[in-house]
């Protein structure tokens, strides 16, 4: 059974029912992009999603069986696959693959990573920071990172670290500061906090993603710093009231009309605030925010945490705009739920299934689904898996059968 055969059958069932992709996506609770990629054979739905599709089309468990068969195909010659790899083996492969994608100069000196590991572009500041942090999470000395660290540190500016465009980029600065503090002593906590503060502006306070990213770094290197307290207050203020429940949307600006809560941004905020609590911060408002948001993530009826949210952003007097939130949502949901008390195993497994759907065992990295290999997906994935491993004695987070 092939992935393409699953897509063909799903498309046949949908058309026989007289439904559009948007219809089925809405019924199942996923984005249309998810359904398109299933039907075109780019990747498989999770078993949970296959069950939902089966139930809707009354396919008598046929889709579930096809998905399971496609996920564990027999290799050429009919020999059985090897047993599933351990998490240690998954991490080892990821580390080796990241080192294999490291860009070197004409003298063989390591300089960094590119954003999309499949392309032949130059290294970027943000991608290099992600690569350093990923190797730190993986926990083995795969390579001497000193040349990469020194080169990255030298790129600092008055506004911290910048991306391809000039200007303030708090998400870039936060990622670089975090990476440098993980991998070396070239950057002091005081200097890191100062760079992070210089990168922030009024716009940052309207974007939960930027606030959560900055807070996570600030809480790690300066849990008692004034900047950490301000970022915490700003992140709590960035919540919106969704039917009496305070959660995070894509942004908070004056004039927003009926925005939708975001699973990705809510999970990111929970992770950042929980990191702060782990440092010993005693704030009842933070604990309450984490508890409310975590329960919402547990109760979320959306069956696919996936990689993309399709949110409605209504405009005053105009038609609603669709906003695609392109984050590795399942990895952040795993992190948000891993350390929460009394999380149903089925909910955590759901997010883990979505995370493993993107794993490419042949290369040991996580893929977007279109052939792209964003380095941040692997960083998010291994960080989430490490969180699950530390939180559970015997967690059900192992990958599907891995190819040796």
Tell me what you see in this structure.
The structure is a single chain. With 404 residues, the chain is mainly alpha-helical. The chain has three domains: 3-71, 434 Repressor (Amino-terminal Domain), CATH 1.10.260.40; 87-199 and 374-404, no CATH class; 202-210 and 220-357, no CATH class. It is 52% helix and 7% strand.
Secondary-structure map:
Layout: H1 3-16, H2 21-28, H3 32-39, H4 47-57, H5 62-71, H6 87-100, E1 103-104, E2 110-112, H7 125-138, H8 146-153, H9 170-183, H10 189-199, H11 208-221, H12 226-237, E3 240-242, E4 245-247, H13 263-278, H14 284-299, E5 309-315, E6 318-325, H15 329-338, H16 345-357, E7 359-360, E8 365-366, H17 375-391
Antiparallel strand pairs: 1-2, 3-4, 5-6, 7-8
Characteristics:
single chain, 404 residues, mainly alpha, 434 Repressor (Amino-terminal Domain), two-stranded antiparallel sheet, 52% helix, globular
């Amino acid at each position: 059974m092939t992935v393409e055969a699953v897509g063909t059958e799903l498309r046949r069932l949908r058309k026989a029912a007289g439904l559009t992709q948007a219809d089925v996506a809405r019924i199942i609770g996923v984005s249309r992009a998810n359904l398109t990629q299933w039907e075109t054979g780019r990747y498989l739905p999770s078993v949970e999603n296959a069950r939902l599709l089966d139930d809707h089309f009354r396919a008598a468990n046929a889709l579930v069986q096809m998905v399971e068969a496609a996920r564990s195909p027999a290799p050429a010659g009919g020999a059985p696959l090897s047993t599933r790899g351990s998490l240690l083996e998954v991490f080892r492969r990821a580390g080796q693959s990241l080192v294999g994608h490291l860009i070197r100069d004409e003298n063989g000196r390591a300089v960094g990573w590119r954003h999309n590991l499949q392309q032949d572009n130059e290294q970027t500041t943000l991608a290099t920071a992600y690569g350093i942090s990923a190797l730190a999470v993986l926990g083995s000395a795969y390579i001497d990172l000193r040349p990469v660290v020194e080169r990255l540190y030298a790129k600092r500016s008055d506004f911290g670290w910048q991306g391809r465009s000039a200007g303030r980029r708090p998400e870039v600065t936060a990622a670089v500061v975090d990476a440098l503090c993980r991998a070396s002593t070239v950057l002091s906590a005081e200097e890191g906090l100062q760079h992070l503060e210089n990168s922030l502006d009024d716009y940052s306070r309207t974007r939960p993603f930027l606030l959560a990213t900055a807070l996570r770094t600030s809480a790690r290197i300066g849990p008692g710093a004034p900047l950490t307290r301000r970022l915490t207050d700003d992140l709590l203020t960035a919540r919106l009231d969704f039917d009496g429940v305070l959660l995070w949307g894509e942004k908070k600006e004056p004039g927003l009309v009926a925005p939708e809560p975001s699973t990705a941004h809510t999970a990111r905020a929970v992770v950042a605030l929980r990191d702060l609590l782990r440092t010993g911060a005693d704030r009842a408002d933070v604990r309450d925010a984490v508890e409310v948001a975590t329960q919402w993530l547990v109760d979320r009826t959306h069956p696919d945490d996936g990689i993309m949210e399709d949110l409605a952003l209504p405009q005053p007097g105009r038609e609603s705009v669709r906003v695609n939130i392109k984050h590795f949502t399942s990895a952040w949901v795993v992190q948000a739920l891993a350390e929460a008390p009394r999380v149903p195993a089925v909910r955590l497994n759901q997010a883990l299934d979505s995370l493993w759907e993107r794993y490419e065992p042949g290369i040991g990295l996580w893929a977007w689904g279109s052939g792209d290999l964003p380095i941040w997906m692997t960083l998010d994935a291994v960080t989430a898996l490490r969180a699950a491993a530390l939180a559970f004695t015997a967690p059900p987070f192992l990958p599907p059968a891995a190819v040796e």
